[in-house]
Each structure stands twice: as structure tokens, then as C-alpha cells.
Amino acid sequence: MRWEILHRTRYTYATPVRDSFNDVRLQPMPIPEQTVESFLLKVLPAARLTHSTDFYSNWIQHFEIVEPHSHLLIEANSRVRTHPPAPLPAEPLCSFAQMQAAPNIERCFDYLQSSHFVELSPEAWKLALDATDGIGDAWLAILALMNFVHGFLKYESFSTHVHTHMSEVLRDRRGVCQDFAHLMIGLCRVLKIPARYVSGYLATEAASATHAWLEVFVPGHGWRGVDPTHNCQIGETYIKIGNGRDYADVPPISGNYRGTRDRKMEVEVKIFPVN
Asked: Does pTM top 0.85 for this prediction?
């Protein structure tokens, strides 16, 4: 399928700010599962954009606005064609013994460790063991963990924020898609299953923000996307922006400036199917 995505972010400052330095991660990744046909980033006040990729192959646009300004608009327009592989069957595909070789391939090491928002705690280890009790296949364990997280957490809008740690999610048992992804990543990693965070979009009628899911590495099948928020493998309605150890590696917009902390941020996301 082909998709047109408009992602607009507006900042309004109570008093003028200056020396604004920003990194934008809104360009979809060119990967086998999707073709990026076009991408345009607009910034107002106008600024010179520079482009780079980070350690995890995410595209970053950087800009600086030195002069005083009371408003900032960041607007990304993307057109993407998705063509993901068929979902894997719910049958044994990879033993845990085969999974032990994963840290030595596909740069999996980082995705087996604790990270900024994910902790490999004793509590996570116990939950993961209970959720996969009696399962000897790593892929079936992944599906069991996804089903467990989907039922363990209650989806509740605005119950958490972008800086919520996995330990808080475990305590409160509620959150949004980012929290579902972080918890499942932690449960996978304690079982030595490589898991990485994915930022992107899910094309639905209610799409109004970015979405989060994860990818797990399955030897012989590569990185496979799963979405614990919806308890499913990803399909053609998922558009990937970037990946990393957790949200800290792929915030859509990050930066700093000099001036007031009194600001208002408005985010608008629109996704349209195109022929």
C-alpha cells in the first residue's frame, strides 16, 4: 500500500527564545519492507537543514535558529509504499539454543542489554518465565510474551509520558504504545531474545500521533515486527521511522534552546492512503 503522511509540530513560546538547536527524526527508513518515495521537511522560521544517519541507521535532520523567535513550526511530509513480508506462523521456528548465536550477528548485542528506559530486573525475569512456562521455542515464546503484555497492561491515554520508565509501567500496569513496547522489550531481553524499539506510524482512522512497537531477531528470519499494543505482527499499515534500544534513541524531535520554559506544543498527524 502507499501512504501520504503529514506530521506537523508547533511550538509557541510565552516570550521569544533563541539559540535553538534541534534534531528531527521523522524521515521513514529505506528498508526492504517499505519504499520511501518522497520526504520533505519544512521549518519556520526558515533554517538550513543538514542530514546524517546515526549508529542505528536512523535519518536525522539538524537545524539551528540563533535569532529570537516566538513560534517554531516543524512539518514533515512523507510518501511511503509498504510491502512487508507475510506474518510468521505460530509454530516452532527457532530453538533457544539457536538464539544463543544471535549476539554475534546482525549487531544484536545492544538489543540484549538494559537501556535508558528498559531494565532487566528480577521482576521482569520472573514475569517472562511465568509467561513462557513450558515453551521451548523462542518464536513461540515471543508470541506468548506479546499476548501476555497485551493483557497485563491497560491502555490508558495520557497515563504516562515520554520519560516513563519500564519499572513504573510494571508498577502501575497501564500506559500507551511506548510503554507496551518497552515492557515487552525488557521481557524479551531477560530471555536472551534480541529486541529493539521501533518508532513509526500506524495507519488507522484515528491516527493522530506516532506509534511504537518492537522488532525481535529470529535466526533464519531476520528482524520481525510485533505490536503488543494490538497483539499482532506488523503489516502493511505500519510505517517505520526508526529503531533503537528504546525511545531515548529515536525521539521524533529533540533539542534545546535559550529562553522561557513556558511553551505550548501542538502535534498533528494525518495519514492518507494514496493510489
From this structure: yes
